Amino acid sequence: MTPSPLPENLKTGILHLGLGAFHRAHQAAYTQDAIAAAGGDWGIEAVSMRNPHLAEVLNAQDGRYTLIERHADRPKPVDMTVIRSAMALPGNQSALAARMADPAIRIVTITVTEKGYGADIGSASLNRADAGVAKDLAGSTSPSSLPGLICAGLAQRRAAGNGGLTLMSCDNLPDNGHLLRAVVLEMARETDAALASWIEDTCRFPSSMVDRITPAASDETFALAEKALGKPDPAAIETEPFRQWVIEDTFAGPRPAWETAGALIVPDVAPFETMKLRLLNGAHSLLAYLGALAELPAVRDVMADEALRKAVRGHMEAVSATLPDLPGFDAGAYADALIARFANRAIDHRCLQIAMDGSQKLAQRIFTPAKDLLATGGDIRSCALAVAAWIRFAEGRTDEGGELELNDPLAADIRAALAAAGPGSAAKVKAIGALKGLAHQGVLYDPQFAAATAGALTLLAEKGVRAAAAG
Ligand code: CS2
To answer: pTM (2 decimals)?
Structure first.
């Protein structure tokens, strides 16, 4: 086990919202390494947004947990002590606001997944159909949406006369800082106009591109942790060795020296975000739906299937044509490195984990590059295949007839739309295109794209995943 180099009396300077596996494998690891290299009171207080159990488990071990890096040849456990305490949000909204008002807290980082922002992703504005957002806009004293929670905390901070905060989204969303700022300001303008001006003047919302493949912890994770630690660690997690973090250089105050841990601090994150969302996450969604339909449990299994691996590599090649210029960036080498990461036999990354919440993911991963490809006469076939595989996945049956669960905030609407559409592929594509809350940016109305998607859907239904992947 690599021991933690952090001092025992480290103080807290970061409040993190969303205590999932990804935070514990990514920002926590960068922050621990940055403190080790450059010092600073940047301990993390982490908030579990839904699950009180995880906060209890972490607090019982003073925030300590084992992070296991799954190198292809051997696991490397790391002792993590950067999280100093945890709290669970349910019932603790006012405690959270008080923590955000504490002058010792300088940065709030956020991983709440795509659907956690209370946002309409396509228009970067509040999703007023979201019950929590509607309640908070009506002036709820116990906020439940992310923008409502942040406004309540910032209002208390402002009233206490403390300075502005840096609030940083670390979710896989395009222009995630802009999106967060937009929904927070929209909420503030409607509930407290003076707060909105204060936020504009004093707070900063850097965008960031985050990357580290982190499967859900499994029995194997816990067994490896117990072996390294000599006792059980119910908060242990595992991750791949690779990590990347690109952060927009705009902060309201001080920050950890994350660059000493390998993060890139840059004026513009957008080209990095586009590259990662389209090549890594887009390919992930494509392979997750194909894999689920073929009853392949994990990403590594899809990579071991030649026809599917070729389709995934081909998709990366097709969408590479839509990437902005990034000096020194070699799309082919990046794609090859992604294939190698996906194929890592030590990582059991479940297709169903990635397949979740497709309605919130496909906009930035598939529809936006598809729109760019349509505009330039590029190759749209792999994007159409990804959409078709998602629709077939939503229909709930694998190629062998096994049941597939649809885990998506729009699940009921998707099912109703497909049921009303009847058996024809073109009608199904049209029905999905008409779904409220799916930011397909007109791509499903494009006759060429709609026809390609319907064709792929028919092929999937009649000939199965491998035939469809071969085109
Ligand atoms: C994945 C991501 O679950 C998903 O949708 O595509 O979590 C992916 O593993 C990470 O973004 C990798 O950095």
So the answer is: 0.97
